[in-house]
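Supplementary Text 2. Reproducibility record for the structural model of the 329-residue chain.

All settings were left at their defaults, and a single model was retained for analysis rather than an ensemble. We include the record here because the model underlies the residue-level annotations in Supplementary Table 4.
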Amino acid sequence: MDQVGMGNTEHQGALSKGEVLPFPASSQSEGFNQGPTVLNSLFSGAFAGAVAKTSIAPLDRTKIIFQVSSNRFSAKEAYRLIYRTYLKDGFFSLWRGNSATMVRVIPYAAIQFCGHEQYKRILGQYYGFQGKALPPVPRLLAGSLAGTTATMITYPLDMVRARMAVTPKEMYSNILQVFVRISREEGLQTLYKGFTPTILGIMPYAGLSFFTYETFKKIHAEHTGRSQPFSYERLAFGACAGLIGQSASYPLDVVRRRMQTAGVTGRTYSSISGTMRDIVREEGVIRGLYKGLSMNWVKGPIAVGISFMTFDLMQILLSKLQQFNHSAR
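Retained model, structure tokens:
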């Protein structure tokens, strides 16, 4: 998941020692055209997503394996699974499927972060808050729209990543083979299996994540007089945002994983409600629909916090380089 750069949306305040101040929105609009700003957001988002997802890839893979099975989840069993995988297939097997994750996450995060910046700008113009922090409802809407846009464009890559995470390496040797075999053996429509619960889940997840992060930054600016938090504060704000967003949408995440991997687990899931009923009947509400949530509370806040922080810092760095190049001409 992955997500915001507030560097140009809040009022400038007094800077503490060691704090870096990004350029105000006016300098970007007056000195540069919109193109470089969009490119900066795309690149920063792609980099942030790649760093965040790679850092928690082993935990993410373990969570998916439990989500798509009927085995009971616990921290002890998760540790055993990781250890057995390490002994059997080696250290780097813990990152199996991460190449597919990167193929999905890089464009997903780039589109989501860039889309969020653009939706903020559009909504800011519409509601009369251009250059300022948006009110709560538009703030929530901007995040939801950004997540929905990115998901719609990159969903087949998420499907492929889930398949690679739960199958032995002998079954699929590379990403292209997953696409080819799924298309030939199960039909092209399978690449969008689980799409509906994914969209229903990403709207509250992305909306609440962006909303929470920007709200913390707004409150921080109002109470400290600093327009830009320190890096560790960004990390903490992002971690809280990830915790809230993922907890709200987690059952739908379990449902989509079951539907995505049905072709290789021997199960048939035809609808969201039917999948939920099967999971609750066989495993219960908490142990089924919330299986692996405790692991998500570890990996999710770390990943979201890293992605938010990395995006913000990359935006600041690229803006400084852009201004330096402009002034050197």
